[in-house]
Amino acid sequence: MATKVPAEYLDVWVDGPVTDFPWHLWTDGSTWQVREGEDFNVPASAFIAAANIHANLLGLTVKAAKIPWQVGVGGQIILFRFEKRDEDDE
């Protein structure tokens, strides 16, 4: 069943979900590198999914690639860049 919540909850999500990630810095068009276990503590695929959600909220796209890090130890490096959406994508 649905639950009533304070109006402020919606305000947070309209502006984008609250996270520990500095999306406001990362959406500047630069290419960024983050390391699993150091910069984020979720599966790499979840980080990329969160980046895609944030990109959509801002009308952007995100290109991302996962590469192995510390082979045999686990963890991955993610390279990513937020870009303006092509007019053809709209």
How does this model look, in words?
The protein has one domain (21-84). It is an alpha+beta fold. The mean pLDDT is 81. Strand 2 (60-68) and strand 3 (76-84) form a beta hairpin. A three-stranded antiparallel sheet has the order 1-3-2, with helices on one face. The protein starts with 7 loop residues before the first helix and ends in a 6-residue tail after the last strand. The chain has three helices and three strands; from the N terminus they run H-H-E-H-E-E.
Structural class: alpha+beta
Uncertain runs are none
What is the arithmetic mean of pLDDT?
Answer: 81
Largest sheet: number of strands, sense, barrel closure:
3 strands, antiparallel
Strand order of the biggest β-sheet: 1-3-2
The coarse silhouette is globular
Number of strands: 3
Q: How large is the count of helical segments? A: 3
The topology string of helices and strands comes to HHEHEE
* Helix percent band: 25-40%
Strand content: 25-35%
User: Separation of termini?
Assistant: 35 Å
Any idea what the radius of gyration is? 15 Å
> How many separate structural domains?
1
Comma- or semicolon-separated keywords:
90 residues; alpha+beta; 3 helices; 3 strands; globular
Topology summary:
Layout: H1 8-14, H2 23-26, E1 31-35, H3 44-58, E2 60-68, E3 76-84
Antiparallel strand pairs: 1-3, 2-3
